[in-house]
Amino acid sequence: MDARSEVRNFILENFMMGRDPGELENSGSLLELGIIDSTGVLELVGFIEETYGFTVEDDELVPENLDTIDRIVDYIGRKSQK
Amino acid sequence: MLIHRYLEENVEKFPYKDALIYFSGRLTYIELEKAANRLANRLVDNGIKPGDRVGILIEPLINYAVAYFAILKAGAIAVGLNTQGTARNFKSILRDCEVSGLIVLSRLIHVLNEIYQEIPSLKYVIGDGGIEGLTAKLHSESWLDIQMSGDHKRPNVYQRPEAPAQIIYTSGTTGDPKGVTLSHKNLTANTDSIVQYLQLTHEDKVMAILPFFYSYGNSLLLTHIRVGGSIVMDTRFAYPNVVLDVMSQERVTGFSGVPSTFAILMHKSNIHNYRFEHLRYITQAGGPMTPALTEKIMKAMPHLKIYIMYGQTEASARLSYLEPEMLLKKLGSIGKAIPGVTLTVKNDQGDVCKPGEVGEIVAAGDNIMLGYWNKSAETAQVIKSDGLHTGDLAKTDEDGYLYIVSRKSDMIKSGAHRISPKEIDEILAEHEAVQESAVVGVPDEILGEALKAVIVLRQGAQATVRDLLKHCRANLPAFKVPKYIEFRESLPKTSSGKIRRHLLTEQKSE
C-alpha cells in the first residue's frame, strides 16, 4: 500500500467512523473539517513515526506538514529521503 | 445585571476597540453588538420568546460569541453544544431542553436532517455558512442574509437577572447529559469575582484556545467582554507553535489552559524560543495538574503569574484559586475560595472538618447554578440547604488552603473534557459480545487521564480490541473512544454488586 492509502486508512479508521469517507478530500483541512483535534494530531504523529521510522520534530508540528492528506504525504516523502 | 449589558456598556466606552480577533478577522465592540442585535431581532421576529432555548452548534469562531449575545438579547436561553458530538448526543441534548431555535454550522446540516423529526420543539434554524442541503421541513435562514439585511437596533426585551441565561450540558454520572442551568445573576457574580482576582482591565487580551461551549471557555469570553478587553481565538492548538506565534504577534497578556494544554506546550512545542514580553499571567483549571508540570512551567516562564484554579460547571465556572505568590509554598493546593464564594469541607455527618481531615467540598455563593434542567431529583442530590455538594473530597491545611484528595464521582477528566464512564459503558453494552464493562481513567502524560475500558465478554462470544474500538468509534465522539481496552474474566465488585472502579485504574493495559 502506498503512503497516501495508508494515511487515508488511518484517518478513516481512527477519526471518521460513522462519517462519509467522501468528506475526506486529499486537499481538505483536517482541522477545519472537524476531523482531527489537538490530541488527534498527536495520534497521527505517533502513527507516522511508527510506520515510517522517523521522528516528527517539535518545529515540524505545523499545518504546512500535517493539515491535509496531500501535505502529510509530501512531508513523509521529504523526511524519508533524508 | 444582565450578561449582555456588559457588551452594551463597553460599546459606549470602547466602540472601536477589538473585542474579538480570529485569524485575520476582527470585530470591534460596536460591530459585535450590531451583529448580535441583527440576529436577536430575527430571533424575536421568528417567534423566539423570553425563556425559550436556542442551541448554538457552531465552532468557537467569532460567530459563536455573536450568537451567544444575540440569544441573551432576545431574552432566550443559550445552549452551546460541542461540535465534536455525534448525532445521538445532539439529539439527546436538543430534546432534553426542547430547543425552539438552532444556529448550526453548514457542515453539520446533514446531521440535522437525520435527527430533526425527533426534536418536535424545533421550529427555526439559522445556517452559519448557509442552509444549502437542509431537507428538514423547518423555517430556515442563512446567517449571511440576516447580517446583510437585519435591523441592528437593540431589541427591547425585558428579562430578570434571576432568569436562566444559559444551559451548559455536562456528562451526567448516569450517562444522560445533564443541563447545568445558570442565571444571569450566577454568571455575573462569577464573572465579577474572576475579574477581581485576576485583576483584569480593558488592557487585557487573552488567547482563548478553549471552546466557548464549556464553562472555562465561556468564562474567558464573559470576563473579557466585562472589562472591555480583547479575546484572540485560535482553534489550531493541534499545532501549538502556530498558536504561540499568534500569541506573540498579538501581544496577548493572558493565556488559559487545562493540564493537557500545558503538557503539550512543555513537551511538543518550541515554547522555550519565545519571550512573550506582554504576557502577564496564565491560568490553569479543568482538573489537577501535577506539581512537576507546574514547576516546569515556572521554569520556562519565570516572569509570569500562574493562577491554579478549581471550579465546576455547576458553579458557573470558578470556586477557588491559589494566589501566584503562594504557588511554591502551597504546591498541589487549589487555594482558597474566590471572592463572593464560601467553601467548607464537611464530613459525612455534615460537620466542618478539622485541618487535615478529609471531607467533601461544599460551596455557597451567587454563582451556584439554579439546578439541572428538568431534573429536580438530580438537582436535589447536589444542591442542599448548605450549598452545592461538589462530590470532590479534599482537606485543608492549618492556613486554610484546600487540597483535593479525590473525586467522589467516577467522572473522568481527559484533556479538556469531563467524561462519564457510564456513557461509554452503555455504548459498549450495545455490542453483542459484551457482557459488562467498566471504563476508568488511567494516568496519561498529555491528557491527564486517558480512557481504559475493562471488558468481560459473554460466555462463548468473541470480539477483538479492534472490533470494540470500531463499535465505539461509530457511536461516540473521538474524545470518548477508549485509548486502551483490556479483557478480563470478571470485574471486581463490592458485596452490593457495585463495580470497584478504583481497582481497575492501577495497571495500564496493552
What do these coordinates show?
The complex is a heterodimer of chains A (82) and B (510). Chain A is mainly α and 82 residues long. Chain A has a single domain (3-15, 25-81), classed as ACP-like (Non-ribosomal Peptide Synthetase Peptidyl Carrier Protein, Chain A). Chain A contains 4 helices and no strands. The radius of gyration of chain A is 12 Å and the shape is globular. The mean pLDDT of chain A is 87. Helix content of chain B is 29%, strand content 28%. In chain B, helix 1 packs parallel to helix 8 (215-227). The longest helix of chain B has 17 residues, at 29-45. The chains are: A mainly alpha (82), B alpha/beta (510).
From the structure above, extract its key features.
heterodimer; A: 82 residues; Non-ribosomal Peptide Synthetase Peptidyl Carrier Protein, Chain A; 4 helices; 0% strand; B: alpha/beta; Rossmann fold; GMP Synthetase, Chain A, domain 3; 3 domains; 14 helices; 29% helix; 28% strand; globular
Question: What topology does this entry show?
Answer:
The complex is a heterodimer of chains A (82) and B (510).
Chain A: H1 3-15, H2 38-52, H3 63-66, H4 69-81
Helix pairs in contact in A: 1-2, 1-4
Chain B: H1 3-13, E1 18-22, E2 25-28, H2 29-45, E3 53-57, H3 62-73, E4 77-80, H4 87-96, E5 101-105, H5 109-115, E6 124-128, E7 139-142, H6 143-149, E8 164-171, E9 177-183, H7 184-198, E10 205-208, H8 215-227, E11 230-233, H9 240-250, E12 254-257, H10 259-268, E13 281-284, H11 291-300, E14 305-312, E15 317-322, E16 336-337, E17 341-346, E18 359-365, E19 371-372, H12 376-382, E20 383-384, E21 387-396, E22 402-407, E23 412-414, E24 417-419, H13 421-429, E25 434-444, E26 448-457, H14 465-475, E27 484-487
Parallel strand pairs in B: 1-11, 3-4, 3-5, 4-8, 5-6, 6-7, 10-11, 10-12, 12-13, 13-14, 26-27
Antiparallel strand pairs in B: 1-2, 8-9, 9-19, 14-15, 15-16, 17-18, 18-21, 20-21, 21-22, 23-24, 25-26
